[in-house]
Design goal:
The chain has 5 helices and no strands. It is elongated, with a radius of gyration of 17 Å. The model has no long low-confidence stretch (mean pLDDT 95). The chain has 158 residues and is mostly helical.
Length: 158
């Protein structure tokens, strides 16, 4: 039974602190997911087919990211947030609602992605400073993908 409680090299206080940070990111990702669903459903205009499909691709990716973040929190022996109330109470990104114009949606999406990047960079630095390779790798991969996505979205608006 003693093996079940081994630390595996990560301090308990750190686990709690990084999980709190990951839970805030999780809340933001859940709102990000719902924003993308709303934009997928409501987009109109000449770029409808392109954006409708792209927003679906993005919300599908967001569901995978939500799962990865929650599973990382569980790996750290902590509890992920899991209610809409928790997500809304902890989110820092903007809720996008009643937006049907594709360019407006893309601009708001870029703003939210930048907010996620700020949070992810803070988590990356903190996890790297504490030799938490699992969290650092997860977050590093998210950052790389989002930076590329922001570039592509900005290019769409030009």
């Amino acid at each position: 039974m003693e093996t079940l409680h081994k630390n595996v090299g990560i301090d308990q206080d750190y686990k709690i602190e990084i999980s709190d940070k990951l839970n805030l990111l999780l809340a933001n990702y859940q709102v990000h997911y719902m924003n993308l669903r709303g934009m997928h459903w409501n987009v109109k205009g000449s770029n409808f087919f392109l954006l409708h499909e792209k927003f679906e691709e993005l919300y599908t990716e967001a569901t995978e990211t939500v799962d990865e973040i929650a599973e990382r929190i569980l790996t750290l022996d902590q509890q992920p947030l899991h209610t809409f109330e928790d997500y809304l109470d902890n989110k820092t990104i903007r809720i996008i609602k009643e937006v049907s114009d594709g360019a407006t949606g893309i601009s708001l999406l870029i703003d939210n992605l930048n907010e996620l990047l700020i949070q992810e960079r803070e988590i990356l630095e903190f996890s790297s400073d504490n030799n938490d390779e699992g969290t650092a790798t997860l977050i590093s991969d998210l950052i790389s993908g989002q930076e590329k996505l922001i570039w592509m979205l900005k290019s769409t608006l030009q």
